[in-house]
Specification:
single chain; about 140 residues; Nuclear Transport Factor 2, Chain: A; six-stranded mixed β-sheet; 3 helices; 6 strands
């Protein structure tokens, strides 16, 4: 796979893990990186804890969301083994009492590094542009 494809796969894998409530796997994606949300978390355990402490997990074990990641732009510096990406995201959610709807939208600014031939996150910086009813998604909403 090309660097662009590998990085795109990381971006989409993140969304799948959040959606399914696999926060240990989200943490694994940041074993050598930082998730720079409201309170930055660095490393596997801190990122996993951040997601467990922040997101509501419903009885089916998932966040009951479907994060859509679009408009992905990736810039790779092959000689340096680094890359950046900018992408839009929209989170859809449906739970009892909340019909399917977008609950938030924004963008990510990401940084990556290649280590032993494998790309990994070094930083993900989420930005929220639009927010709706987050009461079924965020524990503090």
């Amino acid at each position: 796979m090309s660097a662009h494809r590998d990085i795109e796969n990381l971006i989409f894998t993140y969304a799948a893990h959040v959606d399914s409530g696999d926060f240990a796997d989200v943490g694994e994606l940041f074993a050598h990186g930082t998730f720079s949300g409201a309170t930055p978390a660095t490393g596997r355990e801190a990122v996993e804890r951040c997601f467990r402490d922040t997101l509501v997990v419903h009885p089916d074990g998932t966040a009951r969301t479907r994060p859509l990641t679009t408009n992905v732009r990736i810039d790779v510096d092959e000689p340096a083994g680094t890359a950046t990406a900018h992408s839009y995201w929209t989170a859809l959610q449906a739970v009892p009492g909340l019909p399917l709807q977008p609950i938030a939208s924004g963008h990510y600014d990401d940084r990556f590094e290649r280590c032993a031939g494998t790309w990994r996150f070094t930083e993900r910086r989420p930005h929220v542009a639009l927010a709706g009813d987050l009461s079924h998604h965020l524990k503090a909403a």
